[in-house]
Amino acid sequence: MLRHRLHVPAIAFVALGALPGCAHNLAGPGHATELPTVTPEAAGFSSQRLLAARAQFDRIGSAAFMALHDGRVFVSWGDVGRKIALHSIRKPLLGALYGIAVARGRIDTSATLAQLGIDDIPPGLTAAEQQARVIDLLKSRSGVYHEAAYEGAEMIALRPPRGSHAPGSFYYYNNWDFNTLGAIYERGTGVGIFEAFKREIADPVGMQDFGVADGTYFHERERSQYPAYLFRMTARDLARIGVLFQRNGVWEGRQVVPPSWIAASWTPTAIENPDVGLAYGLLWGILPAESSIRLGPGYLGGGVGVQFVFVKPDDRLVFVHLMDTESPWSTSGHLVAQLFSLVLDAREGGERSR
User: Fold this and answer.
1) 256, 97 in Cβ contact below 8 A?
2) Residue 176's CB: how many other CB atoms inside 10 A?
3) Residue 294 and residue 312: Cα distance in Å, rounded?
4) CA-CA-CA-CA torsion for 2, 6, 7, 9, nearest 10 degrees?
5) Gyration radius from the chain CA atoms
6) 350 located within any domain
7) Three-class SS of residue 79?
8) Helix and strand totals (H; E) in the chain
9) Judging by DSSP bridges, how do beta strands 250-251 and 307-312 pair with one another?
10) Residue 297 sits in a domain of what CATH number?
11) How many CA atoms lie within 13 A of 178 on its CB side?
12) Is 276 within 8 Å of 1 (Cβ atoms)?
């Protein structure tokens, strides 16, 4: 169910060494403060019906779950202040940074890898591969099938042969694309990913826990010169990302991420999983209303099939689910989807907005 190839939806370390951010108890943009809370009934949900969702949460061994309506928390279960590895949720986080940098003219999404001087360790990129554009990487359609850091066995097994698809012509969930986007961002802006995220997003939305040291670069230099950029984050901080996108990039009156970028990120560019109807945009998964998962319409950032930020903007809803993936776990995306479904079923009146 919710399956991102090896990562999300059947719905899928080198320390940076910077000082961590600290939380403040000051209200207003740029200062950390608790997210507002409401009762389930005030959000249009039944506390009694939510008991079934709570039982599912306990049964599957989740570390943290939050549900928010219009930016207000009406469900908070588990340790929402614990920093947990996000895995592939790193991609929509980088995507938010790209939206800001593109709007400022620091990154040209039509630029080719050749124009940017992007190559890799031998066997390096061919002239044809270097014609891939930044936008092709954002769509995971570069046609570059070089080895990459932080690839799982399934990604490796599914990787097409080098030169089998022209840039822009074929979707493959490609860590080479994602990792190289990190390098392109840093070259284009002159700022490290985690410093930029702290300054451009975490601080403006008042994250309580995230610090630059919660980001790490994962190198596998025998595979590629481009490392994966990995985030650790608390559920209550990740919830702010969901709310930021649910509110079209605005936080307390400030436009943090351009709305045009969010619209582009949530526009389907490929079908990622035909079995359930999951589509792919720019670093986000897209769940249409007609999907067999029955949670849509909505938008997913996910990792290893169990870490999720799920946004339903039409319903003003955000769900965040995290597992402790550094301890033994056996939860599946299918079970997490059931948890989400049980929460939606707890709406007063028993009807879901579609």
Assistant:
1) no
2) 25
3) 12
4) 0
5) 19
6) no
7) coil
8) 10, 16
9) unpaired
10) 3.40.710.10
11) 27
12) yes
The reply to whether 280 falls in a domain is yes
Measure Cα distances from 310 to 26, 58, 103, 245, 328 in Å: 28, 20, 25, 10, 24
pLDDT tens digits, the chain, 354 residues: what are they? 343 333 333 333 233 323 223 333 333 445 678 999 999 999 999 999 999 999 999 999 999 999 999 999 999 999 999 999 999 999 999 999 999 999 999 999 999 999 999 999 999 999 999 999 999 999 999 999 999 999 989 999 999 999 999 999 999 999 999 999 999 999 999 999 999 999 999 999 999 999 999 999 999 999 999 999 999 999 999 999 999 999 999 999 999 999 999 999 999 999 887 777 799 999 999 999 888 788 989 999 999 999 999 999 999 999 999 999 999 888 899 999 999 999 999 998 755 544
Separation of alpha carbons 3 and 13, rounded Å? 26
Q: Which domain holds residue 53?
A: 2-345
Decide: 229 and 90 in contact? Cβ < 8 Å: yes
Structurally, the chain folds into a number of domains equal to 1
Please name which of 305, 314, 304, 301 lies closest in space to residue 344, comparing C-alpha atoms: 314
Note whether residue 301 is domain-resident. yes
- Tokens at 197, concatenated: 């995220």
Work out the angle at residue 251's Cα, subtended by the Cα atoms of residues 246 and 255, and round it to the nearest 5 degrees: 95
Residue whose token pair is 């919830």? 239
Tokens linked to 249 = 């990039």
Q: Indicate if the alpha-carbon torsion angle 49, 53, 55, 56 is positive or negative.
A: positive
Q: For residue 321, which of 127, 68, 15, 22 has the smallest C-alpha distance?
A: 68
Rounded CA-CA distance 315/33 in Å is 24
Q: Cβ distance 8 to 279 under 8 Å?
A: no
Determine the residue type at 161: P
Give residue 201's Cα distance to chain centre.
14
Q: Identify whether 353 is part of a domain.
A: no
Q: What's the pLDDT score for residue 350?
A: 58
